[in-house]
Amino acid sequence: MRSLLFVPADSERKLAKGLESGADALILDLEDSVAAGRKSSARATALAFLKQYAGKHRLVVRVNALDTGLTDADLDAVVAGRPDSILLPKAEGGAAVTHLDAKLTAREAIHGLPEGAIKILALATETAAALFLCGTYRGASPRLSGITWGAEDLSAELGAETNRDAAGRFTSPYMLARNLSLAAAAAARVQAIDTVYADFRNMDGLRQEAEEARRDGFTAKMAIHPAQVAVINDVFTPTPGMVATAQAIVAAFAADPSAGVVGIGGVMYDRPHLTRAERLLARVRS
Protein backbone atom coordinates (compact mmCIF):
# COMPACT_ATOMS: atom_id res chain seq x y z
CA MET A 1 0.00 0.00 0.00
CA ARG A 2 1.10 3.50 -0.83
CA SER A 3 -2.05 5.49 -0.11
CA LEU A 4 -4.87 5.03 2.39
CA LEU A 5 -7.85 7.39 2.05
CA PHE A 6 -10.14 8.16 4.98
CA VAL A 7 -13.84 8.12 4.06
CA PRO A 8 -16.70 8.73 6.53
CA ALA A 9 -18.53 5.43 6.84
CA ASP A 10 -21.90 7.15 7.05
CA SER A 11 -21.70 8.72 3.59
CA GLU A 12 -22.59 6.49 0.65
CA ARG A 13 -21.67 9.31 -1.73
CA LYS A 14 -18.18 9.75 -0.31
CA LEU A 15 -17.62 6.01 -0.17
CA ALA A 16 -18.48 5.74 -3.85
CA LYS A 17 -16.19 8.67 -4.65
CA GLY A 18 -13.41 7.01 -2.70
CA LEU A 19 -13.51 4.03 -5.04
CA GLU A 20 -12.67 6.37 -7.93
CA SER A 21 -9.77 8.08 -6.13
CA GLY A 22 -7.03 5.64 -7.06
CA ALA A 23 -6.19 5.01 -3.40
CA ASP A 24 -4.60 1.66 -2.65
CA ALA A 25 -6.90 1.31 0.36
CA LEU A 26 -10.00 3.02 1.69
CA ILE A 27 -10.37 3.56 5.43
CA LEU A 28 -14.06 3.37 6.30
CA ASP A 29 -14.14 5.65 9.31
CA LEU A 30 -16.48 4.88 12.20
CA GLU A 31 -14.59 7.14 14.60
CA ASP A 32 -13.84 10.86 14.33
CA SER A 33 -15.75 11.67 11.15
CA VAL A 34 -19.01 10.13 12.38
CA ALA A 35 -21.16 11.96 14.94
CA ALA A 36 -22.28 10.03 18.01
CA GLY A 37 -25.88 9.89 16.85
CA ARG A 38 -24.90 8.38 13.50
CA LYS A 39 -22.66 5.56 14.71
CA SER A 40 -25.32 2.87 14.29
CA SER A 41 -26.30 3.90 10.78
CA ALA A 42 -22.61 4.25 9.84
CA ARG A 43 -22.01 0.64 10.87
CA ALA A 44 -24.86 -0.53 8.67
CA THR A 45 -23.60 1.53 5.73
CA ALA A 46 -20.06 0.23 6.24
CA LEU A 47 -21.24 -3.39 6.31
CA ALA A 48 -23.25 -2.99 3.11
CA PHE A 49 -20.25 -1.39 1.42
CA LEU A 50 -17.95 -4.17 2.61
CA LYS A 51 -20.27 -6.87 1.37
CA GLN A 52 -20.35 -5.24 -2.05
CA TYR A 53 -16.66 -4.41 -2.48
CA ALA A 54 -14.57 -6.58 -0.14
CA GLY A 55 -12.17 -8.63 -2.22
CA LYS A 56 -12.42 -6.14 -5.10
CA HIS A 57 -10.80 -3.23 -3.23
CA ARG A 58 -8.57 -3.09 -0.18
CA LEU A 59 -10.84 -1.94 2.63
CA VAL A 60 -9.88 -0.95 6.16
CA VAL A 61 -12.29 -0.02 8.95
CA ARG A 62 -11.29 2.46 11.64
CA VAL A 63 -13.25 1.45 14.71
CA ASN A 64 -13.74 3.53 17.83
CA ALA A 65 -11.03 3.30 20.48
CA LEU A 66 -11.02 0.52 23.03
CA ASP A 67 -11.80 2.86 25.93
CA THR A 68 -14.97 4.26 24.34
CA GLY A 69 -17.16 1.21 24.86
CA LEU A 70 -18.04 1.29 21.16
CA THR A 71 -15.42 -1.08 19.73
CA ASP A 72 -17.43 -4.26 20.25
CA ALA A 73 -20.48 -2.86 18.46
CA ASP A 74 -18.26 -1.73 15.59
CA LEU A 75 -16.69 -5.17 15.25
CA ASP A 76 -20.03 -6.95 15.63
CA ALA A 77 -21.24 -4.97 12.64
CA VAL A 78 -18.30 -5.07 10.24
CA VAL A 79 -16.48 -8.38 10.69
CA ALA A 80 -19.19 -10.14 8.70
CA GLY A 81 -18.14 -8.00 5.74
CA ARG A 82 -14.56 -9.27 6.02
CA PRO A 83 -12.56 -6.05 5.84
CA ASP A 84 -8.89 -6.47 5.01
CA SER A 85 -7.85 -4.71 8.21
CA ILE A 86 -9.06 -2.92 11.30
CA LEU A 87 -7.39 0.41 12.10
CA LEU A 88 -7.19 0.78 15.87
CA PRO A 89 -7.12 4.42 17.00
CA LYS A 90 -5.50 5.55 20.23
CA ALA A 91 -3.63 2.27 20.45
CA GLU A 92 -1.50 2.08 23.55
CA GLY A 93 1.17 -0.47 22.76
CA GLY A 94 1.22 -4.14 22.02
CA ALA A 95 -1.30 -4.97 24.74
CA ALA A 96 -3.98 -3.04 22.86
CA VAL A 97 -3.22 -4.96 19.67
CA THR A 98 -3.36 -8.27 21.55
CA HIS A 99 -6.73 -7.21 23.00
CA LEU A 100 -8.11 -6.41 19.56
CA ASP A 101 -6.70 -9.68 18.20
CA ALA A 102 -8.77 -11.62 20.74
CA LYS A 103 -11.91 -9.72 19.80
CA LEU A 104 -11.33 -10.43 16.11
CA THR A 105 -10.61 -14.12 16.70
CA ALA A 106 -13.96 -14.60 18.43
CA ARG A 107 -15.88 -12.83 15.69
CA GLU A 108 -14.06 -14.59 12.87
CA ALA A 109 -15.14 -17.88 14.42
CA ILE A 110 -18.75 -16.69 14.65
CA HIS A 111 -18.79 -15.71 10.98
CA GLY A 112 -16.89 -18.71 9.67
CA LEU A 113 -13.79 -16.76 8.67
CA PRO A 114 -10.28 -18.19 8.91
CA GLU A 115 -8.51 -17.10 12.07
CA GLY A 116 -6.22 -14.20 11.27
CA ALA A 117 -8.01 -13.27 8.06
CA ILE A 118 -8.46 -9.68 9.24
CA LYS A 119 -5.26 -7.76 9.88
CA ILE A 120 -4.59 -4.88 12.28
CA LEU A 121 -3.16 -1.42 11.69
CA ALA A 122 -2.27 0.51 14.84
CA LEU A 123 -2.55 4.28 15.25
CA ALA A 124 0.26 4.45 17.75
CA THR A 125 0.75 8.01 18.99
CA GLU A 126 -2.60 9.63 19.74
CA THR A 127 -2.21 9.69 23.52
CA ALA A 128 0.68 10.73 25.72
CA ALA A 129 0.83 7.27 27.29
CA ALA A 130 1.09 5.69 23.85
CA LEU A 131 4.43 7.38 23.21
CA PHE A 132 6.02 5.42 26.04
CA LEU A 133 4.71 2.12 24.62
CA CYS A 134 5.88 2.34 21.02
CA GLY A 135 8.53 -0.28 21.66
CA THR A 136 6.02 -2.95 22.69
CA TYR A 137 4.39 -3.83 19.36
CA ARG A 138 6.86 -6.47 18.24
CA GLY A 139 5.36 -9.92 18.73
CA ALA A 140 2.02 -8.56 19.94
CA SER A 141 0.02 -10.26 17.21
CA PRO A 142 0.65 -11.89 13.83
CA ARG A 143 -2.27 -9.79 12.59
CA LEU A 144 -0.31 -6.55 12.98
CA SER A 145 0.64 -5.40 9.49
CA GLY A 146 1.28 -1.68 9.86
CA ILE A 147 1.82 1.18 12.29
CA THR A 148 0.87 4.77 11.69
CA TRP A 149 0.68 7.87 13.81
CA GLY A 150 -1.48 10.91 14.45
CA ALA A 151 -0.94 14.42 15.74
CA GLU A 152 -4.41 15.89 16.22
CA ASP A 153 -5.58 13.90 19.24
CA LEU A 154 -2.10 14.05 20.71
CA SER A 155 -1.98 17.85 20.46
CA ALA A 156 -5.33 18.07 22.25
CA GLU A 157 -4.07 15.83 25.05
CA LEU A 158 -0.83 17.78 25.40
CA GLY A 159 -2.73 21.07 25.51
CA ALA A 160 -0.78 22.46 22.56
CA GLU A 161 -1.87 25.60 20.73
CA THR A 162 -0.89 23.98 17.44
CA ASN A 163 1.07 21.00 16.17
CA ARG A 164 2.70 22.79 13.23
CA ASP A 165 4.90 25.87 12.97
CA ALA A 166 4.43 28.90 10.73
CA ALA A 167 6.05 27.04 7.83
CA GLY A 168 3.59 24.15 8.15
CA ARG A 169 6.08 21.69 9.64
CA PHE A 170 5.36 19.60 12.71
CA THR A 171 6.77 21.01 15.92
CA SER A 172 9.13 18.93 18.05
CA PRO A 173 6.63 16.92 20.15
CA TYR A 174 4.99 15.63 16.98
CA MET A 175 8.26 14.89 15.23
CA LEU A 176 9.06 12.78 18.28
CA ALA A 177 5.76 10.93 17.84
CA ARG A 178 6.47 10.50 14.12
CA ASN A 179 9.91 9.10 14.74
CA LEU A 180 8.75 6.76 17.48
CA SER A 181 6.08 5.32 15.18
CA LEU A 182 8.67 4.79 12.46
CA ALA A 183 10.95 2.98 14.90
CA ALA A 184 8.00 0.97 16.25
CA ALA A 185 7.15 -0.25 12.76
CA ALA A 186 10.75 -1.16 12.03
CA ALA A 187 11.08 -3.05 15.31
CA ALA A 188 7.82 -4.91 14.69
CA ARG A 189 8.77 -5.65 11.05
CA VAL A 190 5.57 -4.08 9.71
CA GLN A 191 4.78 -1.26 7.28
CA ALA A 192 5.44 2.30 8.44
CA ILE A 193 2.59 4.58 7.32
CA ASP A 194 2.85 8.36 7.59
CA THR A 195 0.02 10.47 8.98
CA VAL A 196 -2.37 12.73 7.09
CA TYR A 197 -1.58 16.17 5.71
CA ALA A 198 -4.55 18.27 6.78
CA ASP A 199 -4.11 21.20 4.36
CA PHE A 200 -5.66 19.26 1.48
CA ARG A 201 -5.45 22.13 -1.02
CA ASN A 202 -1.68 22.53 -0.56
CA MET A 203 -0.26 19.93 -2.93
CA ASP A 204 3.28 21.31 -2.73
CA GLY A 205 3.27 20.97 1.03
CA LEU A 206 1.83 17.47 0.77
CA ARG A 207 4.50 16.41 -1.69
CA GLN A 208 7.30 17.81 0.45
CA GLU A 209 6.03 16.07 3.57
CA ALA A 210 5.51 12.79 1.69
CA GLU A 211 9.00 12.93 0.19
CA GLU A 212 10.53 13.55 3.61
CA ALA A 213 8.56 10.61 5.00
CA ARG A 214 9.75 8.33 2.19
CA ARG A 215 13.33 9.50 2.70
CA ASP A 216 13.18 8.53 6.36
CA GLY A 217 11.65 5.08 5.85
CA PHE A 218 7.88 5.41 5.61
CA THR A 219 6.42 3.50 2.68
CA ALA A 220 2.87 4.91 2.61
CA LYS A 221 0.80 7.89 3.72
CA MET A 222 -2.80 8.40 4.74
CA ALA A 223 -5.02 10.94 2.96
CA ILE A 224 -8.09 12.90 3.98
CA HIS A 225 -9.18 14.01 0.51
CA PRO A 226 -9.29 12.20 -2.85
CA ALA A 227 -7.23 14.98 -4.45
CA GLN A 228 -4.26 13.98 -2.31
CA VAL A 229 -4.09 10.40 -3.55
CA ALA A 230 -2.29 10.99 -6.85
CA VAL A 231 0.55 12.88 -5.17
CA ILE A 232 0.95 10.23 -2.49
CA ASN A 233 0.96 7.40 -5.03
CA ASP A 234 3.55 9.21 -7.11
CA VAL A 235 5.88 9.83 -4.18
CA PHE A 236 5.69 6.30 -2.82
CA THR A 237 5.99 4.49 -6.15
CA PRO A 238 9.64 3.50 -6.69
CA THR A 239 11.02 5.05 -9.87
CA PRO A 240 12.44 2.86 -12.66
CA GLY A 241 15.90 4.06 -11.67
CA MET A 242 15.40 3.02 -8.05
CA VAL A 243 14.15 -0.39 -9.16
CA ALA A 244 17.06 -0.89 -11.55
CA THR A 245 19.59 -0.01 -8.86
CA ALA A 246 17.93 -2.36 -6.37
CA GLN A 247 17.91 -5.19 -8.91
CA ALA A 248 21.59 -4.61 -9.63
CA ILE A 249 22.48 -4.72 -5.93
CA VAL A 250 20.54 -7.94 -5.39
CA ALA A 251 22.09 -9.52 -8.48
CA ALA A 252 25.62 -8.53 -7.42
CA PHE A 253 25.28 -10.10 -3.98
CA ALA A 254 23.62 -13.18 -5.49
CA ALA A 255 26.64 -13.59 -7.77
CA ASP A 256 29.00 -13.42 -4.77
CA PRO A 257 27.08 -14.58 -1.66
CA SER A 258 30.13 -14.35 0.59
CA ALA A 259 30.81 -10.70 -0.25
CA GLY A 260 30.36 -8.04 2.39
CA VAL A 261 30.61 -5.23 -0.14
CA VAL A 262 30.04 -5.06 -3.90
CA GLY A 263 30.93 -2.37 -6.41
CA ILE A 264 28.46 -1.25 -9.08
CA GLY A 265 29.25 1.59 -11.44
CA GLY A 266 31.99 2.92 -9.19
CA VAL A 267 29.76 2.94 -6.08
CA MET A 268 30.24 0.57 -3.13
CA TYR A 269 27.21 -1.14 -1.60
CA ASP A 270 27.23 -3.16 1.63
CA ARG A 271 24.77 -5.52 3.31
CA PRO A 272 22.42 -2.79 4.64
CA HIS A 273 22.06 -1.61 1.03
CA LEU A 274 21.09 -5.17 0.10
CA THR A 275 18.42 -5.20 2.79
CA ARG A 276 16.96 -1.92 1.52
CA ALA A 277 17.09 -3.18 -2.08
CA GLU A 278 15.24 -6.37 -1.19
CA ARG A 279 12.56 -4.44 0.66
CA LEU A 280 12.06 -2.04 -2.24
CA LEU A 281 11.67 -4.90 -4.70
CA ALA A 282 9.22 -6.62 -2.35
CA ARG A 283 7.10 -3.46 -2.32
CA VAL A 284 7.13 -3.39 -6.13
CA ARG A 285 5.93 -6.99 -6.29
CA SER A 286 3.16 -6.58 -3.70
Walk me through this protein's architecture.
- The chain has 286 residues and is an alpha/beta fold.
- It has 2 domains: 234 residues, Phosphoenolpyruvate-binding domains (TIM Barrel), CATH 3.20.20; 46 residues, no CATH class.
- Helix content is 45%, strand content 16%.
- The protein contains 11 helices and 10 strands.
- An 8-stranded parallel beta barrel has the order 1-2-3-4-5-6-7-8, surrounded by 6 helices.
- α8 packs parallel to α9 and α10 packs across α11.
- The longest helix is centred in the middle third of the chain and has 17 residues.
- The mean pLDDT is 95.
CATH class category of the largest domain? Alpha Beta
Helix content: 40-55%
Largest sheet: 8 strands, parallel, barrel
Rounded mean pLDDT score: 95
Proportion of residues in extended strands:
15-25%
Rg from alpha-carbon coordinates: 20 Å
Query: CATH superfamily name of the largest domain?
Result: Phosphoenolpyruvate-binding domains
Low-confidence stretches: none
Strand line-up of the largest beta sheet = 1-2-3-4-5-6-7-8
The dominant shape is globular
The CA-CA distance between the termini, in Å, is 8 Å
CATH topology of the largest domain: TIM Barrel
Tags for this entry?
286 residues; alpha/beta; TIM Barrel; 2 domains; 8-stranded parallel beta barrel; two-stranded antiparallel ribbon; 11 helices
Q: What are the SSEs and their pairings?
A:
Layout: E1 3-8, H1 12-19, E2 25-29, H2 39-53, E3 58-62, H3 71-78, E4 85-88, H4 94-110, E5 119-123, H5 128-131, E6 144-148, H6 152-158, H7 172-188, E7 191-194, H8 203-216, E8 220-223, H9 229-236, H10 240-255, E9 261-264, E10 267-270, H11 271-285
Parallel strand pairs: 1-2, 1-8, 2-3, 3-4, 4-5, 5-6, 6-7, 7-8
Antiparallel strand pairs: 9-10
